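User: Second chain of the day. Same drill as before.
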Amino acid sequence: MATTVVGNVLVLVVETNPHSWQTVQSPTFAQLVQHLVVFLNVHLANKRANSVCVIAAHTGSSRILYPTALESDEGRDTGKWQPLQRMNDAFAAELTALLSEACDLLPNTALGGALGKALCYINRVRQTCIRDKVPAPSGRVLVISAAPPPPTQYMAVMNAIFAAQKHSIPIDSCVLGGAPALLQQAAALTAGNYVDVGPASKVPIADGLIEVLLTCFLTDPEDRSTFTRPVMKQVDYQTSCTCHGTALNVGFVCSVCLTVYCKFQWECDNCKSSFKVRKQTGNA
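Assistant: Same format as last time:
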């Protein structure tokens, strides 16, 4: 009796905001793309049932780079396995088209929207397998971050983290710049891996990024217990206000949408709810 191979859906979220990459000295974005293509090829070749999805977290929006509706089933005859060749061609074409578009150099990377699309894609693949009565694959998300997400993304990212935790979808993070507490929390709450390869790390990242990707992020979630996982330092669970991005111990929270502020406001900037302060009665 043949054994059914259960695949794994890897959703790669890449930060493509040019503003974020201005602070990253090594690797360059071109070097990163080369390493990511090798990593995705290894993931697809690891199991025939594996699949990938690539999402760009860009300036103010997110976009699925692969798979695409215009993906060709023919491919070029280069001697490569056709699924790998189709993925390489489609990824390169969509990324080139995205980067050729004019955009503002603003720190407003749409990480929350990209994570939401990643979770929706994994859920769609699982529901399709259930409908076709075949084993549903496991899913995971890998975020390649060049800078901490802006404060305006706090609620969207936290909602995505809680949704991933509920559906047992690990969120891994490979940080190239900054020390985003949100991604640390995402890895800790969803049983993912968090690796900081920024300037403070001792990894020769220009040449060693592919080694980090293959050793820390290639393993499926079901097999990670048999390997030594990256050790994450103490996680900062402090929340940040959406107005300034300041870490808070005590703050003001909107009772409707849970937006956090460092100072009292009469109206929530997010959901436009109005707040009223009741006067205390009786003896003080």
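The longest strand covers residues 8-15.

User: Great, on to the next one.
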